[in-house]
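COURSE: Structural Biology Practicum
ASSIGNMENT: Worksheet 4, Part C
STUDENT ID: 0417
INSTRUCTIONS: Below are two proteins. For each, the amino acid sequence is given first, followed by its structure token string. Answer the questions at the end about the second protein only.

PROTEIN I
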Amino acid sequence: MMPVIKHQTYIKSQPAKVFQMLTTADGWNAWFTDRTTIAWNKDGTGEIRLRWAINREKMIEDGGKIIEATPDESFIFQWCPGESQTTVKFNVQPFREGTLLAVEEHGYSNKDIGTCIECAIGWGEALTLLKIYLEHGIVLKEDLFAGVI
């Protein structure tokens, strides 16, 4: 059985703001991605396309179906970062003067151990970037494709 990726962090920002950063394209693009798009359906599901630059020559794109979005509580989507479709769930809950944000990803196959490891590292980095952005207004990702695409 493949491991489940789990990370969590405390962010000194209200749950509604954290939730907004995870459920809007402008939110993702502010702190992590470069050209993410999100299309919502009336039933609260939708489609997410995450896009981010590795360098000026390579852009990674992945995404899939938004399964559920419970305002200020959880955001769940599926994507296929390797050979297997996985499910990513963000949990947002009030804690002290801010938010405890947890991410969990499961569904990797044995063929995807390398991708699983890369995503485990990536989700840890993503939570750190979001924390720094919301607490200090600092963007640590570089928009390598500004003005290029």
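PROTEIN II
(use this one for the questions)
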Amino acid sequence: MESRKVLIKYGGNAMVSNELKLAIAQKIKQLSENNIQVVLVHGGGPFINKALEASGIVTEFFDGHRHTSLEALTCIERTLKGEVNSSLVNLLNKQGLRAVGLSGKDGKMVKAKKRWHIQKDKEGKETKTDLGQVGDVAQVDVSLLETLLESGFTPVITCIASDDEGNDYNINGDVFAGKIASALRVDEYIVLTDVDGLFLDFPDPASIARELPLSTLGKYYGTVIKGGMIPKINSCEAALKEGVGKAIIMNGTKPEQITDYLLHQEKTGTTLIK
């Protein structure tokens, strides 16, 4: 029987709590035991904020994207690879998995390009902001990931990548995850966040949208979809258009939602459909 492929984008408060980290690692082990291949992609916002603060580096955000100086990038890469990635690999291995820690730089898996932040005013005039060492994904080579998955390994990837000249970039974790999900053509792309899904009237639990067609998303930008949710929805939208089966936004602070959805077909979170 052919394995299902799932990419989980992991971040937010679910990364800070050791109890939740353990619960998510156990859920990934459960998926593995049920013939589901998992690729875990992570950022590390809370850890990066702490490390930058400790180094006296001030950063600002533009629609969920962090301005990143060369000095900040050194600090971010050290935190993501040396602290966050390493601890997740360790935790997954303790559950009996064979986790492998990677960044987009490994095996030239992800080729980056510089990202500019472009904003349009009401008259349609564009303003370009230089975000420093912030990148976009230019290209993804999944050969290393496919080799690892076929050999029974669990790839754990953080969102740093280089361009052709060897310049390193910090890439928004949601953008990065969506592009890898697309390139792998996963069956399900799951984005873990700190809320139960997309609320049409936040925080009214009755207003959660269980299913949203891509064609309806436009009217929600700026109201329902704003701030850090923008890159999450953008990445889901792009992934679906590029061949991913389903994209689901669910609550990483409720790890049971992962197995409820993937193993028991329970409706949870918000599923985006074509």
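ANSWER KEY EXCERPT:
Q1: DSSP finds seven helices and 14 strands in the chain.
Q2: The chain has one domain: 4-273.
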